[in-house]
Amino acid sequence: MESFNMKQRLITSGIGLLILFVVCVFFDTAVLNTAIALISLLAVYELLSATGCFKSRAVAISALLFTAIIPFLPMQWAMRYIVPICYIYVAALFIALLRFHEKLHIEQIAMSFLFCLVIPFSLTTVVYIRDRHGMWLGIFYVLMALGGAWLSDTGAYFAGRAFGKHKLAPYISPKKTVEGAVGGVIFAEAAMLLLAWLYSLAADALGHPIVVNYAAILIVTPVLSVFSIVGDLSASVIKRQYKVKDYGSIMPGHGGIMDRFDSVLMVAPLIFMASRWFPLAHL
């Protein structure tokens, strides 16, 4: 059974990498915005379904509309229009609460607002990275964001299986261990450096050389790994509290979109900030 699950995970990961490659090819177009919008919509849907916030159609519609809009707002527009957009969304939520107050509770309204604020804005930092740095440097930072989340998780998984003894968060995620977390950081350090080097070689071969700051990657990667774990455990504690095993089944072997992107939600904004104040590479 375990070998079958591993096979599913590998097949799903292969398909995911192929989709990532296609998105990178069309990185400088609306394909990226559309991909982020779809991921955000699926993640919001999974979270609100798991927490019972989709009992009201008005809440569901307003949540998905708000989520779908954010990735298509250019960065300069977002800074200008985010207050009125959030106001309209909050007003819609409270109108739904007034209309369906016998079945709808304020906790559901609060969670709807939280999830629809955190998820699309966190993931849309990928679009902002593209808008700020262009295609080739932008793809580099996106790979650093995904790598910081997923490579840490991969390293932690195998290190935990090999050396894990001390539970990291027994109630929230029983399989995670302190040894796994440390192994994840070490693996991520090496893998991120390798990923950056390989990308710089590819970019140079295609006539778009970039200069990688390897020292900065060494410094930033442990921070990314820690917040990757925070994102993973945060999503896990919601599942525990609502007695949900996985957020979905759209990604066989992994679960739902939230099961795969929970750590990215924490790491992508960090990479966005690092790209401005602590650059990992430059043209």
UniProtKB/TrEMBL annotation:
A matching Pfam family: CTP_transf_1
Membrane topology label: Multi-pass membrane protein
Record's catalysed reaction(s): a 1,2-diacyl-sn-glycero-3-phosphate + CTP + H(+) = a CDP-1,2-diacyl-sn-glycerol + diphosphate
Top-level taxonomy: Bacteria, Bacillati, Bacillota, Clostridia, Eubacteriales
GO molecular function, one term: phosphatidate cytidylyltransferase activity
Presence of keyword Transmembrane helix: yes
Any one Gene Ontology cellular component term annotated for this protein: plasma membrane
Protein name from the UniProt record: Phosphatidate cytidylyltransferase
GO annotation terms (biological process): CDP-diacylglycerol biosynthetic process
Keywords tagged on the record: Cell membrane, Lipid biosynthesis, Lipid metabolism, Membrane, Nucleotidyltransferase, Phospholipid biosynthesis, Phospholipid metabolism, Transferase, Transmembrane, Transmembrane helix
Subcellular location: Cell membrane
Coiled-coil positions: none
Source species, domain of life: Bacteria
Family in the record: Belongs to the CDS family.
PANTHER family linked to this entry: PHOSPHATIDATE CYTIDYLYLTRANSFERASE
Keyword hit for Transmembrane helix: yes
Pathway membership: Phospholipid metabolism; CDP-diacylglycerol biosynthesis; CDP-diacylglycerol from sn-glycerol 3-phosphate: step 3/3; Lipid metabolism
Positions of transmembrane segments: 15-45, 57-75, 81-98, 110-129, 135-159, 180-202, 214-238
EC nos: 2.7.7.41
Principal EC category: transferase
